[in-house]
Amino acid sequence: MPMIFWVGLAFVVILFLVTRGKRLRPPSSTDDDVVAIRLLDEAGYDRTRPLEAEFLFFFPKEAAARAACARLEGIGFAGKTEISPEGSVWNCRARKIMQVELDSMRDLRQQLDSIARAEGGEYEGWEAGEVD
Q1: Which of 7, 28, 35, 47 is the most exposed place for a label (fewest CB within 10 A)?
Q2: How far apart (Å, rounded) are the C-alpha atoms in residues 40 and 10?
């Protein structure tokens, strides 16, 4: 399995353990981004080099997910739309090779939140790994 899978899985497990499977409060960008960057550092990634980052969005309708992906592609992301395994929501996955630093990820989070909200969706977060 690619390392990005294991880093993402570790992130989900840590979030689950911290919240005991429940969202106790809405996460702040600082919390999620700091945890994700800490996991990358602990896994030994060289963040002075660009990494492949993947961003996940949820939408209630296919058209909204496709519109968000199109907007993301317009600002340099490679987007992919798919139905969730449960079939209840549509996902947009956007990838970009980039430098992963806390300040830039905070700024990007604001932009991605705005794109998701404009299409009636939710920006879930990101994970990163070495460029293939």
Answers
A1: 28
A2: 10
**H, E, C per residue of the chain:** CCHHHHHHHHHHHHHHHHHCCCCCCCCCHHHHHHHHHHHHHHCCCCCCCCEEEEEEEEECCHHHHHHHHHHHHCCCCEEEEEECCCCCCEEEEEEEEECCCHHHHHHHHHHHHHHHHHCCCEEEEEEEECCC
Residue 73 tokens read as 């592609």
pLDDT digits (tens, 9 = 90+) for 74-111: 999 999 999 998 888 999 999 999 999 999 999 999 99
Query: Could you tell me the pTM of the whole model?
Result: 0.76
